[in-house]
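Lecture 7, part B: from sequences to assemblies.

Below are the input chains for today's worked example.
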Amino acid sequence: MPPAQKEKSKSAPRFESWGRYPQYPAHLHGLHWQSDFPQLAPKLTAPALAVGMGRTYGDGCLLAGGNLLVTTGMDRIIAFDAATGLLTAESGITLAQILDFAVPRGFFLPVTPGTKYVTLGGAIANDIHGKNHHVAGTFGCHVPSFELMRSDGARILCSPTQNPQLYAATIGGLGLTGVISWAQLQLRPIVSRMIDYEGIQFHGIDEFLALTQQYKSSEYTVSWVDVTSTGRNFIRGVFMAGDHSATPAPLKPSPEPKLLFPFEAPGFALNHYTVAAFNALYFHKQFVKHQEKLQDYEPFFYPLDSILHWNRMYGRAGLVQFQYAIPWEHAREATVEILREVAKSGLASFLAVLKAFGDRPSPGLLSFPQPGITLALDFPIKEGKTLPLVHRLAEMTFNFGGRLYPAKDAAMTPQQFQIFYPQWQQLEALRDPQLNSSLWQRVTAQRNP
Amino acid sequence: MPPTNQRILILGATSAIAESTARLFAARGARLYLVARNQEKLNAIAADLRVRGAASVESALADLDDTSAHPTLLQHATQSLGGLDIAILAHGILGDQPRAESDFEHAAHILHTNLTSPVSLLTWLANFCAQQHHGTLAVFSSVAGDRGRKSNYVYGASKAGLTAFLGGLRNRIDREGVHVLTIKPGPVKTPMTQGMKGYDKFADVHKVAAAIVKAIDARTDVLYVPFIPWLPVMFIVRHIPERIFKKLNL
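Predicted structure of the full complex, as structure tokens:
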């Protein structure tokens, strides 16, 4: 490669999704003020997409050849009601910034994903869920209103009663209905940073289901599952339950993370043996079958956030995520069969997460969660192996009546997507004509007959 | 314990680093007076600072290029704050170096905004602080002022002049109990630098702000931020012999 070209590819600003697969070039623009988008929109000739921290795994935060509008400069708080915990903030504020502000004031996020490095706008656009889905529903359930900026200059206040169609289409709307300038978020009170934690080892899907039933009144439940083991250890894992501690304790802000994954690991670093060893270690990290302890919320909710850029562990090729939600009717058999297929493939997955979704409906039109079981897996990209497996798993999910999570997808077909989300055409009708994403272009490419 | 109830004037308050710095002072309960050119942006920042805990936030619209308006502006600001503990001067422009190479008016504009205007403000503020034997003047210069480089020497000249002015001012009024802080940021991720080569690797604005607050508290004289790599890098850059330096593409 000639030096000039090399230098250019190295220094040109890039925007990657968290899986670092796929990669597309795009023009980057920063949105720092609510007035930036209305000023910029008329000047753009190619389609645009608002993006935040780039924590979407696949191509949901990418737009090949288009304009990516990075919202993280719009991170101001507009109002906060200390009595009710209602926060109003610009959409580029991160959940980490919200926690820094809210925790010392005795409030916590109503719903949080496994990373706090996502923006408020991104959390709405993907209608994210967390360990409390079975009691609290999705993030969108706690967003009473927001303002949408359209590329034609309109600013539209959206709530369940004002412009309810756009309100619903924007929650889980993948950023396609407009750019959110600000949003309200209903926080929940806490008296301590600490979580009353319980960890219970389980063997097999039935023990998992029994624990899910037993702990259904715990606010937070999630399971880590070993997907490399077969035979006696098939579907072994650790069921984790937690509640905010009711014992008042100092509400200090969190320290800054110190660790940084410093380089891209070589492609061979993650193989069946290293991942199987990791999984065995993780399972036995907890020496006893049942453990109870008081744990800070940081390691409980965000174990990986303490290592910035942990995605580099997957090397240059990146990773794909795969997450399904399968209704109770087929949830048990589907989970067993899909996990068997994963174990058989020998394609390692570190961070397999199993959880039961609850039945609180989301206000979002294209929201992913539905009552049943959800399983999230990640796979390093291995040439010729990973994508065929993911396609097989998607097909199985499809056959079991489940659906996949667009925020964690890089592989589902248009036909699958359009059956998973038959309401997609309503979103397409409300899409801002100037906005699009590589994900949306992919899954709407061929019309379903 | 960090001081509370500090009376802080911020000139160029809509700059990203100044705004992030203001948030940290707001969280301590400071009283803030913001000056910038855009009312809508000032309103957005003021609302945020109030929610974060500022004891009071007032603001004034001003174009700081207009030096004749400075005395009235500063008088009003210090009266409104009931005195002054810290003044932060953050306004400045990067300018367009290629244009400044052939368009003197543009070069003069860069020098006016980045050098003449702060000199005017600092003349008033230094005398105010010297009289009360108290106060901090925290001023944004730049590592670009440490040595002229072909890629930004007009901007660099304005900042070199400012750095020299601040050094002399410190020498004059440190003995009056006034703290002069020269802030030399390396490239920071802000709207001013967006789209520049290497933007991905620029420093995080919130970390730079935290370093500035720490330097104000500690009464530091000169702050290179981020400290690593800019302190050692600029030491080397300053000491490369000119006969070699002139051949480099910097």
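Note for the exam: Residues 335 and 375 of chain A are 8 Å apart (CA to CA). Keep this in mind when comparing with the next example.
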